From TrEMBL:
This is ABC transporter. Keywords: ATP-binding, Cell membrane, Membrane, Nucleotide-binding, Transport. It holds the Pfam family ABC_tran. It comes from Massilia eurypsychrophila. It comes from the Bacteria.
Length: 245
């Protein structure tokens, strides 16, 4: 049962101000084996939250724990267990996908003999094998997004943290990425993602959190959210809770 599973990610009173609060005393738990969708209007604090979880932005206060490891006390240990895919991933234009993945694997200290089959499997999975020998500078946005995802997965992290992973992907690419995420969770892994595509949250997430002004204003399964709000669809729940017309 997911509800009884230990926490993969635990945020306690996480806070970040940029002049005004972007993330405000945020408490959030994602259980092991869960796909958790974090929704919120523009500027709600989703990306700021994920960047703090990934260790790219220091919180003003509060705590991030990844599988019980305190990110501030043991950043290397916490980061080993997770992967972060930003919404505008950076690739190296002059590398080919295989070279890129081997380079990232090298940063994680993965031996070439282990990295090579993993890279091959990921490229295959994301339908990039036919582009394996092309420079990434010629890649479309969707191809770059998929390669960045492969790079995030190369060290076989248990926790995937994904900021808008499906934006800009065509239907086939979106399906590949969704299948990969579902597969990760079915294999015992954990995913937290942000999305503005409510259908993605409805179809993929075991639990959904809605954040506004840096605070969690609702959380639950799709059915729980619908019945709490007395609304028929997630879109109705979302617009009702975030006070949008
Ligand atoms: N580096 C920064 N400097 C100043 N303000 C920032 C910075 N990063 C984020 N903010 C502010 O923090 C707030 C939260 O932004 P954040 O990007 O986390 O929102 P979001 O929920 O991811 O929004 P979106 O859905 O539009 O991507 C916003 O008011 C934003 O302007």
């Amino acid at each position: 049962m997911i509800n009884d599973a230990p926490a993969a990610l635990q945020l306690t009173a996480l806070t970040k101000h940029f002049g005004r609060p972007a993330v405000d005393q945020l408490n959030l738990t994602v259980r092991r084996g869960e796909l958790y969708a974090l929704l919120g209007p523009n500027g709600a604090g989703k990306t700021t939250t994920l960047r703090m979880v990934a260790g790219l932005l220091a919180p003003d206060s509060g705590k991030v724990e990844v599988f019980g490891i305190d990110l501030a006390a043991n950043p290397a240990g916490a980061k080993q267990a997770m992967a972060y895919l930003p919404d505008d991933p950076m690739l190296y234009a002059k590398l080919k996908p295989t070279e890129y993945l081997e380079f990232i694997a090298g940063l994680w200290g993965i031996a070439a003999a282990d990295a090579e089959p993993r890279a091959r499997k990921l490229l295959d999975w994301l339908d990039l094998t036919k582009h394996a020998h092309e420079l990434t500078e010629g890649f479309s946005r969707g191809m770059k997004q998929k390669l960045a995802l492969a790079g995030a997965l190369i060290h076989e992290p248990q926790l995937l943290i994904l900021d808008e992973p499906l934006t800009g992907l065509d239907a086939a690419a979106a399906r590949q990425v969704k299948d990969l995420l579902v597969d990760h969770v079915n294999g015992g892994g954990t995913v937290i993602l942000t999305t503005h595509i409510l259908e993605v949250a409805e179809r993929l997430a075991q639990r959904i959190g809605i954040i506004e002004h840096g605070r969690l204003i609702a959380e639950g399964t799709l059915d729980e959210l619908r019945s709490q709000a007395g609304a028929a669809t997630l879109e109705d729940v979302f617009l009702q809770l975030t006070g949008q017309p």
